[in-house]
Specification:
mainly alpha, 0% strand
């Protein structure tokens, strides 16, 4: 099977990921990046529920989007666990899942 040539986009993405991994070797930088992802995902969960209630979007359809995102993250996480090397991607996905779920739960408790 022939190996295809990488596109400029693939090369740029690979270079950016390598640069991020080198940058996140410092534990404080890694922790700050994880905290930013956690807080950003929490904001997105809160904003998502607020927007869907404001627009009058159907509640079952509005609930389907975050559940689908979390389920995709879980499936992607399974493949990242098996990869050798740095686990930054796995940690970022976990923080995004936790933040999104916390944002949605916070908005749900506001309704009660």
């Amino acid at each position: 099977m022939p190996k295809f040539q990488q596109t400029a986009l693939q090369l740029t993405v690979n270079e950016a990921v390598d640069r991020l991994l080198r940058w996140a070797v410092n534990p404080w930088r890694r922790l700050s990046l994880l905290l930013i992802v956690l807080l950003g995902a929490s904001f997105m969960g809160s904003a998502l529920s607020t927007l869907t209630s404001t627009v009058g979007f159907s509640e079952p359809l509005a609930a389907l989007l975050p559940i689908a995102l979390i389920e995709l993250a879980v499936r992607w996480r399974r493949s990242l666990i098996r990869r050798p090397g740095d686990k930054l991607g796995l940690q970022l996905i976990d923080m995004a899942r936790i933040g999104l779920l916390c944002g949605l739960l916070t908005e749900g408790f506001k309704v009660l």
